[in-house]
Amino acid sequence: MFKAMKKAGLALALATGLSATAFSAQAAESYKLDPTHTSVIFIVNHLGFSNFQGRFAGVSGELTLDRENPAASAAIITIDLNQVDSGVEALDNHMKTADFLNVEKFPTATFKSTSVELVGDNAAKITGDLTLLGETKPLVLDVTLTGEGDHPMTGDHVVGFGATGTVTRSEYGMNFLVPGVGDDVELQISSEFLKQK
């Protein structure tokens, strides 16, 4: 699908949400993340018994889409760590402390794209910088284009992406309960971007 759209245009996508549409000779386009149709799910092993998951509800971001030159596209995504949601209030409150997310000192995490590599008909590998707990490390997202077109109700032009990646939390200084609670945290991202008029 990505290759087919190459005639019309592919660009960047994130976790976090980042990505592309169709290749045509046009100026770069601006998109905003639709927070109501975006989810960032995290999955971490719990004591070897289960793979526990939660989500971040507060996500915002912008995408600049260059249809002629996808490598020149760029995106920045911000996650409000105060909106971590495990479904258990006591656990959410613990995750907000200095043991884990330390939201009082570091209320947000940010992903800023640095490069894109097309790897298939509907797939791309997006590299960027993830800033978490005051540390910035590279993060690679495997991205799939899930859809593009005009919204049937609002008329907005929408591009949608799925993305996966892995964050090693100890690299950001989040060492509490490692390895009992997994060091590697899997991210599963579903996102929609709305073209700005």
UniProtKB/TrEMBL annotation:
So which residues are the signal peptide here?
A: 1-27
Q: Does the keyword Signal apply?
A: yes
List each copy of the Lipid/polyisoprenoid-binding YceI-like domain by range.
30-194
Q: Is Signal a UniProt keyword of this protein?
A: yes
The protein's UniProt keywords, in alphabetical order, are: Signal
Protein name per UniProt: Polyisoprenoid-binding protein
- Organism of origin is Thalassospira povalilytica
